[in-house]
């Protein structure tokens, strides 16, 4: 198993985040975050800054869930580094464009529990 190049712990799940996750969209934010975004977000606390930049083929682990990154927006690394912010779209329509700060991933997405570990792993 590869060592994670980024690790974080889920602190809480916003009131509206579960519905988004069930629809295939995961919004992550580190603290502090704007209050109006908290209800939509999975709030987490990073252990440290990422030591590598994300790339397609890497894995995102969220608790017991494993997803493979299929596309990485040009601002995704900067957003993660500065804000602890990522938006992950799982199994998006192939015609859907990639937003600059977003990730596309394939695989299951489940609602994490507070205390779950978030990891990025080079495949």
From TrEMBL:
A Pfam family recorded for this sequence: PTSIIA_gutA
Protein name: PTS sorbitol transporter subunit IIA
Taxonomic classification: Bacteria, Bacillati, Actinomycetota, Actinomycetes, Kitasatosporales
Matching SUPFAM superfamilies: PTSIIA/GutA-like
Molecular functions (GO terms): kinase activity; protein-N(PI)-phosphohistidine-sugar phosphotransferase activity
GO cellular component labels: cytoplasm
GO BP, one annotated term: phosphoenolpyruvate-dependent sugar phosphotransferase system
Species of provenance: Streptomyces sporangiiformans
Phosphohistidine PTM positions: 44
